[in-house]
Amino acid sequence: MAEIRSHGLLEEAGYGLRTVSYSMDGTEDFARLEDEICSLQSTKSTLLLQLESIDWSLSHLKAKYATAKNRMAHIGSLPNEILARIFESGRDLNIPGGETFEVLASHITTVWREVAINTPSLWNMLEIAPSTSAQMLAIYLARAKASEMLEDFANG
To answer: What is the pLDDT averaged over residues 65-80?
Structure first.
């Protein structure tokens, strides 16, 4: 009778040393092997659930860290009204056919997103091309609120 021993991270984590015995003539104890397979699959499922939980916790903690770090930046001390005026100036520099300043600004930090989304004058100008989706048009209309909407119909 021969033995195969497995020792590694699982055992160090407290999941025990796994030993699988088999006879040299191929007459393994199938029931025992099936039990071992089930046991290992169960352990794997448990570890995957733990990993998923750790990944979620890590992601959540990183987001909290980034938010706290962003709030400490000097630009974070600007009043929202001043930041909105800066965004309006940036919007005037949009390059036709490129990613728009208002969209880019709304993807930087949570604070910038709130300021950008709640500044209707950022969203009252839209270049409408054949590739412009109805969803994008609806977003601009909703964010422009009562602001006068200016459209530019692009060829292409």
So the answer is: 83
